[in-house]
Amino acid sequence: MISVLFSLIVILVVVCALKSIIKPKNYPPGPKWYPFLGSGNVVRTLAKKHNSQWKAFYELSKQYSTNVLGLKLGGENYVVVYGEKNLQQAFSALEFDGRPNSFFIKLRCLGEKMGVTFTDGSLWKEHRHFTMKYLKNVGFGRALMEKDIQTELSHIIQKIMNSNKSVNPKEVFASAVMNVLWKSVAGERINEDRLKYLIDLLGARSIAFSMAGGWLNEMPWCRFIFPDLSGYNLITKINQQISDVIEETIEKHKSKAVEGNDFIYSFLQEMNKNKSTFTEQQLKLTCLDLLIAGSQTTSNTIEFAILSLLQHQDVQGKIYNEINTVLGDTPVCYEDSRRLTYTNAFILEVQRYYTIVPLVGPRRLLDDVIMDGYTIPKETTILMSVYDLHFDHKLWDEPSKFKPERFITENGEIKIPKFMFHFGCGRRRCLGDSLAKRFIFMALVSLLQKFKIVCSNGTLPRLEPVIGLIMSPQVFSADFVLRK
Ligand code: HEM
């Protein structure tokens, strides 16, 4: 009896192993699949070599001479999409609108697929629409938001003046961005200790997710065997701490202890109308989405802008001359961006050169799709390589050179090519772009009005970015010299 059972188990394992290496018919080219691991081991080895998963995918796409790279990571089919035509298809076709149902995503969403960033279907549509409407009416893109940004900028300038000239931009901008976000979500400026706690938690969470990325995503069952080593225990602990911070704020709103009309109040009003998808968990997750999606992306862009100003002092000179001629010392508002063409072009070049989200996604295919003649099956996870598109020689003149002028037409106007996807594109395009654009523009103009930014000790910091889920600069400091 035992030997029959054992034989059956062996047969079952062999059948599953064989099944796991068979690629679907007409699947896009890519490395061979190994039993149960798929191409995960090949990707992991290359990612280790290059210190980046994005570079591993890039090398494989070149190796297989394809713009549609077919992979299998753990049990999931993955396709990485390259090239303008394919990215346009992925951004516009309805089939690409889904988000994966993986264990990892659920863990990111504190246990249940909720919020905006990682939901799809009717829940996503309803809550994306609600969140965008709120952000448009109350804050983002309005004078109110500009006032909050100006307040934060005056704090930053004061902080820099009080410091010993040499400043680590991360230390000042991460908290300023978080404060503006927190103000629109929770209606109040967050106190310094709480702010530091929240930023540290989000930072620790992002590191824990990167560490656990390979393991937990591909083999979620390993959390039962190695709960510490797999990063699972750490992530659940940090999740709980972040959840507590947001919950505490929601409770404060319920007892009307916060003044004004912020996102949480608007959401609670919808809950009172008994709308079925407006639940406290959904509120918590949407707050988390806004904080996660908006904080590091915006502050990293400013850090890269400062790095670019250090590297290209001639560009800094041109920007300062433009600001000085057009604005002088007048406090900046976003309206001014129409008149500060070169400054605007500089910011766009920073966003191309340092594409903060190098691989946009993940998306989940809602139906089979044909791309470049290959068949990508329903439920495949899709990643779109925007970074490579931003360096495509066929689309950009000397893409590896930093040239703000590429965004200015002969008539002296700003022109953004249709293949520039720094905020994504289509129905899932970034919903915080107007806050990000405002903050980045106003921060840079205010800083350059006051300071000349130069290298600390005359040494240019290391320019090579760290490419994880988003792109970050290596830690650096710069000297902010007060202009006479
Ligand atoms: C420079 C700063 C930023 C960059 C580079 C950026 C980039 C992006 C990109 C590329 C996407 C598209 C993802 C996809 O297509 O799958 C996205 C989505 C999103 N962004 Fe941003 N973002 C920035 C700032 C912000 C801010 C300030 C907020 C919120 C306050 C925000 C909230 C979101 C949300 C909620 C989504 C998900 C939208 C959806 O799935 O429907 N982002 N962002």
Describe this structure in words.
The chain has 484 residues and is α+β, with helices and mostly antiparallel strands. The protein has one domain (24-482): Cytochrome p450, CATH 1.10.630. The protein is 53% helix and 9% strand. The chain has helices spanning 2-20, 40-50, 53-63, 84-92, 103-108, 121-139, 143-162, 169-186, 192-218, 222-225, 232-254, 263-272, 280-311, 313-326, 341-353, 386-389, 433-450, and strands at 68-73, 76-81, 166-167, 359-364, 369-371, 374-376, 381-385, 451-455, 466-467, 471-472, 478-482. Strand 1 and strand 2 (76-81) form a beta hairpin. The protein binds protoporphyrin IX containing FE. Protoporphyrin IX containing FE binds next to helix 13, strand 4 and helix 17.
What's the layout of helices and strands?
Blueprint (H helix, E strand, L loop, with lengths): L1 H19 L19 H11 L2 H11 L4 E6 L2 E6 L2 H9 L10 H6 L12 H19 L3 H20 L3 E2 L1 H18 L5 H27 L3 H4 L6 H23 L8 H10 L7 H32 L1 H14 L14 H13 L5 E6 L4 E3 L2 E3 L4 E5 H4 L43 H18 E5 L10 E2 L3 E2 L5 E5 L2
Parallel strand pairs: 2-7
Antiparallel strand pairs: 1-2, 3-11, 4-7, 5-6, 8-11, 9-10
Helix pairs in contact: 2-3, 7-8, 7-17, 8-13, 9-11, 11-13, 13-14, 13-15, 13-17, 14-15
The protein binds protoporphyrin IX containing FE.
